[in-house]
Each structure stands twice: as structure tokens, then as C-alpha cells.
Amino acid sequence: MSGLTALELARIQFGFTVTFHIVFPAITIGLAAFLAVLEGLWLWKKDDAYLDLYHFWSKIFAVNFAMGVVSGLVMAYQFGTNWSFYSQFAGSITGPLLTYEVLTAFFLEAGFLGVMLFGWNKVGRGLHFFATLMVALGTMISATWILASNSWMQTPQGHEVINGVVIPVDWFAIIFNPSFPYRLAHMVTAAMLSTALFVGASAAWHLLKGHKTPAVKRMFSMALWMLLFTAPLQMLIGDMHGLNTLKHQPAKIAAMEGHWANVPGEGVPLILFGLPDMEAETTHYKVEIPRLASLILTHSLDGQIPALKDFHREDRPNAAVVFWSFRVMVGLGLLMVLLGVYGAWLRWRGRLYQSPLLARFALWMGPSGLIALLAGWYVTEIGRQPWVVYGLMRTKDAVSEHSAMTLSVGLVVLVVMYLGIFGTGIGYMLRLVRSGPQGHAPHAGEIADNQRPARPLSAVDDPLYSSPNSTH
Question: Residue 1's pLDDT is what?
Fold first, then answer.
């Protein structure tokens, strides 16, 4: 691709594959927990509306889980193909952490997934509920190991560098590095928020179509309850995460704020909007609130934080991308809080299911959780640049020795394949969402005694492509 270096192409390729992949684990984490709650409520209250919702969302979970596994494999291989010098430098830490994820989380999920999807008429209710809980636990453990690995790259500790290679000396310090607790909490909460918005949008679509069944109303109510409590919690976690980032990665915070230089004796303003200019070293067309950034970040009206000009040009992240990605994330977060509060107000007035405005608001907010999650990931990863391991290894020293042409061809192939395969998968998943929860019936994913499911998609009875005579 004309004008792009091998390093830039490798970064674009990895960013593209992770952008696709991160969506699926986020929904997997949230849906697994949602399914566990639904089955627990069904066992407790004996209300078949919860069972209908379980059967409905377990189909979508199966499709999403399958796409997450496939996209994750492609991403993992890039450590060896595109970032071989990083693997050589830090593979002694990244390798074991990813291995622990497979040995604990993935095996736990795979071991109980079959019982969860296909075991309704083959095991007792208690064992089936236990299987659902184990799958949900597996998704949490998976997130823990992945975030431990990525957080170590952000705030590395517990190691020594000997002969140009990282050697682990304290695994407790490596796993529980300074940014790990905040990033794990932020990511898991983002997954729950994304799923709540996805579920709420699905219910809103059916409410607008006049499908006010008990199951649809129940999932709309549950989604808005989750949103009401989780969105403010996420903002609190984000604030703590920001303070942790200020301590360990001040250049990232400066880029998020579009803050170029401190004025002696003055606090740092909060720039609401503007255009950071890396060449001119300024933020154009600023709309700002005086001293508010100081109050948020230092709890003082005249406190100051490191500015971008305090760092050498080669040590600064791309301020424009980080600045706007952060504002997309925060802006959508504020809308999530507004949706939760508006839903609570209409619930109090007894109009939760009668308001077309609320339903349309929830419908349009459906993808906002995933968009905010991706924006937050861009802030985290692009804000870490130019380091692949912060303070230890620069990204330019981690890339494999491939030509720009090789990486261009690989990127084009990946884009075409991903849009074709995952575009079809996402379309199929949305088609399942549009079908809506059905009345109480035996689980659609059950199979005959002489058959065995070959893949998670076996749990879905709806064909990917309908025949011309189909009534769907």
C-alpha cells in the first residue's frame, strides 16, 4: 500500500484483527453471565419467561462464541508472524500467560459448553445450571489472563532483562502489575454494559414491532436495570483507571487531554473539543472549562500534570487519535447513564413498556457499548505508543522483517476474508435476534441420541440460508 511502511502496515493489520476479535469476547462474557442469571431465576421462580429467554440467547451465544474462537486464533498467530522480535524479547512472559488462559479458561468453557448447549434432556437441572455457571466462570478467567498479559505490557514489573531478553522473576508481581486491577474491572464492566445494551436494543426492536410478550418485556427490564447501576459504576472505575494511568503513563493522559504545555501558577483546563496538531504542538479550536482537568486529575484547582511538550517528540503518542477516541468513549458513557436514568423514571411512572421514545433510544444505543469499548481500546493501545512494552521495547523494534508488499497483501486478504466470514456471521446473529424469543418448548439445540454436536453452531436450529420456499 503506497506510502505506508512495514511497521505501519503491521500495526494496522493487528489493529484490524483485534478490532474484530474484541467484540466477540465482550459479548461472550456478558451473555454467559446473563444466561447464568436467567437459568438461576428460572430455577428459583419457576417462570417460563426466563427459560424462553435462555433458549433464545443461548443460540446467539453459540454463534458469537464460535466467531470469537476463530478470530482469536488469527490474532494469536500474528505474535509469531508479524511481531517475532517482541515474541523473542517477551515471550517468556506472554507465552505462559496465554498458555494459562488456554489450560484454565478455554478448557473449562469447552468442557461444559456441550452440556450447556445440548444437555437439557440429558442431565438434571442442577448439573445443567452448574455447567452454565462454569462457562460463565471460564469467560471471566479468560479475561483475567488476557488482561494480565496486556496490562504487563502497559505497566511491566516482576522481571529482569538479561542479554536483551525478559526473564520473569516474580510471577505474582507480573500478573498483579499496577494497572491490572483497574483494566480488568474496566474491561469486564464494559462487557456487561455492551451486552446489556445489545439485549436492551433487541427487546426495544420487538416492543416497537408490538411484540410485548412476557419474555420481551422481561429482557427489556433486566437490561435497563443493569444499565442503571453499571454505567455510573463504569465511570467511577474509569476515573480510578485514569489516575492510575497518570501515575504510570503520563504521556497517554496528556494526549487524552490534548494538553501541550503548563502555564506557571495556572490549573489545567478540561478541553471538551478541539483538534490536536502533532506538528504545530497545539490543540486548535479549543472549547475548554478552566481548571477542571486539574480538579479531576489532581483534586486541586491549580494542580498540574505532565504535558506533551515535556516528552521528546519520538516519545509522544498520536494525540489526535487518543484525544477523540477518549471523547467518543466518555460521550457514549454519558448517554448510557442518561438512558438508564430515563428508563428508571419511566419505570417509576409505570410507562416502561409504553414509551416509543425510550424504545427508540434503547434501540439506537444498541451498538454504543461496543463502540465505546473499541474507543477505549484505541485509547489504551495507541496511547501506549511508541512502546510495545512500556519503557522497555519500542514498537519499531518488535516488528518482524517483512516487506511492505508482503504485509499489504496479507492485510488485503484479511480484510476480504473477515468482511466475508464475520460479516456473514454477524448478519446471521442479528437475524436470530430479529426472530425473538419463542414460547416455551424443548430446547432447539437438542440432538438425537445417535448424533453428536460437532461445533457450537449445532445449537442453532435456524438455517444460515433459507430455501426459496422457506416461510422465514
Answer: 58
